[in-house]
Every structure is written in structure tokens, then in C-alpha cells.
Design brief:
This protein is α/β, with parallel strands linked by helices. The protein contains 16 helices and 9 strands. The protein has one domain: TIM Barrel (Alpha-Beta Barrel). Strands 1-4-5-6-7-8-9 form a 7-stranded parallel sheet. The protein has a two-stranded antiparallel sheet with strand order 2-3. Helix 13 links the parallel strand 6 (220-224) and strand 7. The model has no long low-confidence stretch (mean pLDDT 97).
């Protein structure tokens, strides 16, 4: 049977989550172990998922490094003082995640006590390129002009910045593993803005440093979007499982990645907003393309969208289990 879980499976599409959000900000939930654990567990109770993913945010390491941020309604995360110079990079601090992000480790322990090994728990962090993009742009970007301006114009400073992120993220993921997660995912959400050659020069060494730091501890997942031109590079950077988004057929992607790696994906999240029949037909197509080959984890190509009907998520998980048993 094909295992299935969904990125952002804990979140705004669930009434239980919205009820908590009425009382608490997103950062309050992340910083309160009992709340983070409750939100992590909500989809496990409601949906036939085969993994829980820790409710957190990939930007959490930024604040202890000296880059405070908050979430602005309707706009997403905003960094208070974005990186503008080499002096800003030099001021960034390394830190001990077991102390500065102790609440994350406590949330992991609470979740594992509640799960009783029912399903594995996935921890995660952001990859250096994506963290650097947020830190430089100050939030989300459409063209990443400031990020690439620093990257191309000051490559030495860029590598210093990403090396700091790689050191921090490697330590942070090791701490999550020590606290009890069963697998980890490295999110490189914005890496698709790079060409394969730029990925190799500016991102690959830093993501590889992270995967090297946690090698052999737990299974690792390497996720990005818009990565159809750089599967060989993602594979080289690391990850037992490579995430595939919906822009490329999963069988073609797997061939490019290599069958000695597992793959995760790759339904378009917007299909869950439309007619269930189309959603299920597309899920069937993905399963047919995989053809029962071991090593496929069914997931979306990116996170569940907030307006998704929870019934569609439940239906999809049940369908994947039923269809893959045949």
C-alpha cells in the first residue's frame, strides 16, 4: 500500500485549527509545545495519513540568529531588518537549538507521547537558499531580485551567509532527531527560481552540508518546487527521498532522479479545490505511472491550500490507500 501524507496537512483548511488560531497567533502556536502538538495531531485524527509532520515554521531559526520576524495578515512572514550588507551577514549568530528552540524539542516529545508509534513523526527545516531568500527579501518575492543581486554580485558573502544557515540547520535537525522525530524534510521551497548551474554553484554545497551532518540518523526527504531541470543536482545534494512537484510527470522525474532513491509527490494542490472526480483521476494517473514500484510516497507537489474542503483531503487519502492495494 502506498503511504500518504500531505504538506501543510495541519492548518487553515481544518475547523479545529481555525478555532485555535482565533485565540493564538501562528508564532504563539509554534512557541507553545502543547498547542504545536495538538495542531500536529489534528490531521492524524481526522484523515488517513501515514505520517504526522511537526507543526512549526521553517523560519524559526532566523530569530535566534538575529533576524526577528512576524506574520502579517494577508501577506505572510516579514523580516524586521532584512539583510542588506556583508556587515549584516557578519552579525548573524550561531546558536544552540536545544536551548533557543527548546519549545520545538518539547513539542516533539509531547507529540510522540500522544502518537504511541501509530504513525512516524516528520521534523523539518528550511534549506539555506530558501532561508537566505527570506532573510534578504524580507518576505516573499516574485523575482528574488535582491537575493540574486547579492548572490551574483557578492558570491563570497553569499557563501558565508549560506554556510551559517547550513551550520544552524544541521544542528537544528540533529536536535529534532535527538528529541524523537522519525524522519526529517529539508524544504527548499523557492529553489526553483534558480537554473541548474546556479543551483550547483550557489545552493548545492550548503544543502549537502546539512544532509552530510544528519547522514544515517533517520530517513531524509529533500523537497523543492520548480525543480524539474535540477533533479540530478538535488540528488547530489542529498536525501533518501526526493520531492517532485506537479509540473513534471512522476515517472519521468523518477527516471531522472534514479530508482535507487525514493520519490514523494506529486498532485497539484489546486486539484483538491475542484471536482473530486478530476482529483481522483489525477491521483490514479500518478499511481499508474509509479506502477507499484516500491519507494513512492504519495503527497502533493506543495502544501494544502487554506480553502481546501477537508472532505476532499479525507477522500484523497482513502482513495490512494484503496487504489494502491489493488
Amino acid at each position: 500500500m502506498t503511504p500518504v501524507w500531505f504538506m501543510r496537512q495541519a492548518g487553515r483548511y481544518m475547523a479545529e485549527y481555525r478555532a485555535i488560531r482565533e485565540q493564538h497567533s501562528l508564532l504563539e502556536i509554534c512557541r507553545t509545545p502543547e498547542l504545536a502538538a495538538e495542531v500536529t495531531l489534528q490531521p492524524v485524527r481526522r484523515i488517513e495519513v501515514d505520517a504526522a509532520i511537526l507543526f512549526s515554521d521553517l523560519l524559526l531559526p532566523l530569530e535566534p540568529m538575529g533576524l526577528p520576524f512576524d506574520f502579517v495578515k494577508g501577506e505572510g512572514p516579514q523580516i524586521e531588518r532584512p539583510i542588506e550588507s556583508t556587515a549584516d551577514i557578519d552579525r548573524l549568530k550561531l546558536f544552540e537549538p536545544r536551548e533557543a528552540l527548546a519549545h520545538v524539542m518539547q513539542a516533539i516529545e509531547v507529540v510522540q507521547q500522544e502518537l504511541h508509534d501509530r504513525v512516524p513523526l516528520i521534523g523539518f527545516s528550511g534549506a539555506p537558499f530558501t532561508l537566505a531568500s527570506y532573510a534578504i527579501e524580507g518576505g516573499h518575492s516574485t523575482n528574488f531580485a535582491r537575493t540574486k543581486s547579492l548572490m551574483y554580485g557578492h558570491p563570497d558573502a553569499w557563501h558565508v551567509l549560506c554556510d551559517k544557515f547550513a551550520t544552524v540547520v544541521g544542528d537544528y535537525l540533529r536536535a529534532q532527531i535527538d528529541a524523537g522525530v522519525d524522519a526529517v524534510q529539508l524544504f527548499d521551497s523557492w529553489v526553483g527560481t534558480l537554473s541548474a548551474a546556479d543551483y550547483r554553484e550557489f545552493a548545492l554545497p550548503h544543502s549537502k552540508k546539512i544532509f552530510d551532518a544528519i547522514a544515517g540518523r533517520v530517513p531524509t526527504i529533500h523537497f523543492g518546487t520548480g525543480t524539474a531541470t535540477m533533479f540530478a543536482e538535488l540528488r547530489e545534494a542529498g536525501g533518501d527521498v526526493i520531492g517532485v512537484d506537479w509540473r513534471v510527470p512522476i515517472d519521468e522525474a523518477w527516471e531522472d532522479i534514479g530508482f535507487d532513491r525514493a520519490v514523494q509527490g506529486n498532485l497539484d494542490p489546486t486539484l483538491l479545490l475542484g471536482p473530486p472526480r478530476r482529483m481522483l483521476d489525477q491521483a490514479e494517473d500518478i499511481l499508474n505511472r509509479v506502477g507499484g514500484r516500491p519507494g513512492h510516497i504519495f503527497n502533493l507537489g506543495h502544501g494544502i491550500l487554506p480553502s481546501t474542503p477537508v472532505e476532499n483531503v479525507q477522500m484523497l487519502a482513502q482513495y490512494v490507500h484503496r487504489a494502491s492495494r489493488r
